[in-house]
Amino acid sequence: MCEDVKATAQKPMQSLRPNKEVLNRLNQAIRQLRAEPCELEKPKDLEALQAAAASGDAKDKLAWLEATLQRAKQDMAQQLREYQELMIVKLGLDFEIATYRKLLEDKEQRLSTEFGTGSVGPSPAGACSGPVGTSAPGGGCTLCSSPGCVGGSGCSGSGRC
Predict the structure, then answer these.
(1) In 7-140, where do the E strands start and end?
(2) Phi, psi (deg, nearest 5) at residue 135
(3) Three-state secondary structure readout of 144-159
(4) pLDDT, position 90
């Protein structure tokens, strides 16, 4: 009977032996993991994380640069529109100046041929005090021929100035 008790007591011990071996292997693996540095602490992985962070920073910077570029394009488009408007105004003013210049040259030419002087210059003393070309050779107004008229914008050209 003693042998039966020993055999019965050894059966649970034998069934625990594989479990004990598995437990020992797991404890050994835990010790190895604690002894080795964590994968995140390895320089290779640290560089990868830094590269990922730099990539994120680069993406943020790229997005900022693209937004800045878009604003610059909008500003340039606005400035171009303003420039075009100013050029239209300038061309209108240039046309108006050319028109008045032509009118003035025609008037000067007409007056110079009328009086045979060849050029219209300052009026002689005692002549009309109006704008250039409004006094006749006798001292009267060329618009209304009135000797008392001073010519210019006040002259109506009717002779009753």
Answers:
(1) none
(2) -110, 135
(3) CCCCCCCCHHHCCCCC
(4) 95
